[in-house]
Amino acid sequence: MATQLLKGARVVDPANQRDGAFDVLIEDGRIAAVGVDLPVAAATRVVQLATGLVLCPGLIDMHVHLREPGQEHKETVASGTAAAVAGGFTAVACMPNTTPVNDNAGVTGYILARAAEANLARVYPIGAVSRGQKGEQLADIAELKNAGCVAITDDGHPVATAILMRRALEYTRMFDMPVIEHCEDQTLKGDGVAHEGFQASSLGLRGIPSEAESIMALRDISLAELTGGTVHVAHMSARQTLAAVRYGKSRGVAVTCEVTPHHFVLTDEWLAQPMPYDTNVKMNPPLREAADRDAMLEGLADGTIDVIATDHAPHHYDEKHVEFDRAPFGITGLETAVSLCLDRLVHRGVVGLTRLVQLLSVNPANILRVPGGSLTVGAPADITILAPDLPVTVAATTMRSLSKNTPFDGWSLRGGVAATIVGGRVVYMNDAVQGFTW
Ligand code: DOR
Question: Is the pLDDT of residue 43 over 80?
Answer without folding.
Answer: yes
